[in-house]
Design goal:
Blueprint (H helix, E strand, L loop, with lengths): L3 E7 L3 H15 L3 E5 L10 H6 L3 E5 L7 E5 L4 E5 L11 E6 L2 E7 L9 H23 L3 E6 L12 H4 L7 H12 L3 E2 L13 E2 L11 E2 L2 E5 L1 H5 L1 E6 L15 E5 L1
Helix pairs in contact: 3-5
The structure holds one DNA strand of 18 nucleotides.
Length: 257
DNA sequence: ATGGCTACGATCCGTAGA
């Protein structure tokens, strides 16, 4: 099979970011793109604009919050939204099969604050995710899980571990939930390769965080063993974060041979 | 430094993100 380029990008409103996305698709020409925080109801999804750019779309959206989508050059099959058996109004999960690859797009709950209701929801969501991904792995040996997982797995994924210690995104239960995904046999695509120190995928809009590189690595590409064996690169593209009116997240990309 | 951005849907402020 030809090389396949995968990407994930939390666009923080597809309506606002569509021009940047189209520009970026033209420059990077990925084969699959998982989007998060589209914040668009399905009838407002820009199907025609993306089709003109060469992409088929599948999406599960809602007004104001959340919303996920998968863009793909090859035809999409077996499209499914949500985690089976986990009732959830929030549109955070979408899966499809295309080009010989099973692709899962995730927007994990933020968690707000350790101990809050939203934090408990985040941990329950992760437990349901783990159960489901175990089944997906059994069904699809060539599996890629991409998205905004809202967990910085290790201290090196945090600009200031001391400042963040115990906080949401780095708390031990969240990191344990991340490790439980790895224990299924998924691998952190980014760590398959040597990477620059202080590599992050999200920077707060406030306090000049991007300029100071005060970020977190919370957007991830997880690969099954078969997919990881074929992975030749995994990088974070900081260029879109430098644009005017950017998303607070940068895209993460991987290449499979 | 508990935020001093940004997007949204509601009105000129509250909620949420991370």
């Amino acid at each position: 099979m030809d090389a396949v380029k995968l990407a994930t990008w939390n666009v923080n409103s597809l309506k606002v970011r569509l021009p940047q996305l189209l520009e970026w698709l033209g420059a990077q020409r990925p084969d699959f793109v998982c989007l998060q925080e589209t914040k668009l109801e399905d009838h407002k999804f820009p199907v025609a604009e993306l089709e003109a750019a060469g992409y088929r779309s599948s999406f599960a959206g809602q007004k104001t919050y959340n919303g996920v989508a998968i863009l793909a050059r090859p035809p999409l099959a077996e499209v499914a939204a949500g985690i089976p058996g986990f009732a959830d109004e929030q549109k955070r999960v979408l899966a499809c099969t295309a080009g010989g690859l099973r692709v899962v797009c995730l927007y994990a709950p933020n968690g707000q604050a350790v101990g809050s209701d939203k934090y408990e929801y985040k941990l329950r969501w992760y437990e349901a995710l783990r159960r489901w991904l175990a089944e997906e792995l059994a069904r699809h040996p060539r599996l890629a899980v991409l998205g905004d997982l809202n967990v910085a797995p290790e201290d090196r994924d945090v600009h200031d571990p001391k400042l963040w210690e115990g906080q949401v995104h780095v708390s031990e239960p969240e990191r344990a939930a991340w490790r439980a995904l790895l224990a299924l046999g998924l691998q952190d695509g980014f760590r398959l390769f040597e990477q620059p120190e202080k590599s992050f995928s999200w920077w707060d809009y406030r306090m000049g965080a991007f300029r100071r590189n005060a970020g977190l690595r919370i957007d991830h590409i997880l690969l099954s063993g078969a997919a990881a064996a074929d992975c030749t690169a995994c990088t974070i593209d900081k260029a879109p974060r430098k644009l005017e009116r950017p998303s607070d997240h940068a895209p993460v990309m991987a290449e499979l041979r």
